[in-house]
Design goal:
The chain has 392 residues and is of the alpha/beta class. It has two domains: 337 residues, TIM Barrel (Alpha-Beta Barrel); 34 residues, no CATH class. Helices cover 40% and strands 9% of the residues. It is built from 15 helices and seven strands. It has a seven-stranded parallel beta sheet. Strand 1, helix 2 and strand 2 form a beta-alpha-beta unit. Helix 1 runs parallel beside helix 2 and helix 4 packs parallel to helix 7. It is globular. The chain starts with 13 loop residues before the first helix and ends with a helix.
Length: 392
């Protein structure tokens, strides 16, 4: 989950640095740096961080500062692995003050939801070919900045994720499974070949929870029912290409936030789902289980545990012990409780007064175009930002 708090030029700003200092001090062994655009037009908001040549030194300084704080707080031998997520926001692109969607295919529901006109042209096959160069360049810059790995983000219906669901798209990047996965496999292959030495991973949607023919990982007759046949097939192709780790996620935070971030209180305008949040948690855990059991030699990172509050450590330990995941990561839960890992390791439990309460206010700040963080547990910083967004 990103903070939407970079500079206008896409460099990490004061709150970005503060957030990663807090994450690093908290003792997590893996720091997965947030969604970072690969080209300016791919930014989801004017404050999304952007990895281009002019910003490499700022990203290097951010990573080095995080590692220094990790050593100061957890001992001189403590060195977390650093991953940076590379993204193209696609239909959710808003690099300036108004939406500028870039779509892979027309979607009978999402087009209307985000104001995409029926005659908007699709990103062309040639443009997708050239976009691969941007991913390779960003991966090279990430390596220059010192990151151990790049996440080629394929989730939450941003552009690469939308390509996986491009059943209705003509040409080389739509229709068949081979065409819909072509972009992903191409950038995986190219980064591995052209940026040797950096690890490649991905945050992968395995279930969109969205009607066919505009979806991925769903039963064609029932979009509420997952169909893991294609996602598992893709995971095997990634494994064969040498990927050793991936993060399993689901849904679309703009359209079906209850699927990927089960909540008690929705953001403004988001309807209450017809399922209890625990069903959503169980779904994500089970889909990660299927991925882990299909690729037992891979490191599968589970998501969706933040809703479980102080009990998430117990649930994560049970999932890992049963072989349903190799490790578990937190997004909004880390916003609220950046030192969760240290408390779990040292004390065996989490403090109920520090956990995420699934109130959706961090998401609401993003919807209000503010700089996101935990309004409840970090109120001095984010309370005024939340209040300002709601006032407008």
């Amino acid at each position: 989950m990103e903070g939407c708090d970079g500079t206008a030029q896409g460099q990490p700003d004061t709150l970005t640095i503060r957030r990663y200092e807090r994450f690093a001090a908290g003792g997590a062994g893996l720091l997965w740096f947030e969604a970072t655009a690969v080209v300016p037009e791919a930014r989801a908001n004017p404050r999304q961080i952007l990895l281009v040549r002019e910003n490499v030194d700022a990203f290097r300084a951010l990573r080095e500062r995080a590692l220094a704080v990790a050593r100061e707080s957890n001992g001189p031998g403590f060195r977390p692995v650093t991953v940076i997520q590379l993204t193209h926001s696609g239909r959710y692109s808003r690099p300036v003050d108004k939406p500028a969607p870039i779509i892979a295919h027309h979607d009978g529901l999402l087009d209307q939801a985000v104001g995409v006109p029926p005659d908007q042209p699709l990103i062309t096959d040639d443009e997708l070919d050239r976009l691969q160069d941007a991913y390779v360049n960003a991966a090279r810059l990430a390596q220059q900045a010192g990151f151990d790995a790049v996440d080629l983000k394929h989730c939450h219906r941003y552009l690469p994720s939308e390509l996986l669901a491009a059943h209705t798209r003509p040409g080389r990047y739509g229709g068949s499974f081979e065409n819909r996965t072509r972009f992903m496999l191409a950038i995986v292959d190219r980064v591995q070949a052209e940026v040797p030495g950096i690890m490649v991973t991905t945050r992968l949607n395995v279930y969109d929870g969205h009607p066919y023919p505009w979806s991925w990982g769903v039963d064609q007759a029932d979009p509420k029912a997952p169909d893991m046949s294609e996602p598992l097939r893709l995971i095997q192709l990634l494994r064969q290409r040498g990927l050793k780790m991936l993060n399993v996620t689901v849904g679309n935070p703009y359209y079906t936030p209850h699927i990927n971030r089960p909540f008690d209180v929705p953001s403004v305008g988001v309807k209450i789902p017809d399922e209890h949040p625990l069903y959503g948690v169980a779904r994500i855990i089970d889909l990660a289980r299927q991925a882990q059991q299909a690729a037992p030699e891979m490191v599968i990172i589970g998501s969706g545990y933040s809703y479980l509050r102080q009990y998430l450590g117990h649930a994560a330990a049970a999932a890992i012990r049963r072989g349903w995941a190799t490790m578990v990561g937190l997004g909004r839960g880390a916003f609220a409780y950046p030192d969760f890992a240290r408390d779990l390791v040292r004390g065996g439990q989490l403090d109920p007064k520090k956990v995420c309460v699934s109130c959706s206010r961090c998401s609401q700040i993003m919807r209000d175009h503010g700089r996101s963080g935990c309004v409840i547990r970090d109120r001095e910083i984010y309370g005024p930002i939340y209040d300002e967004g709601r006032a407008h």
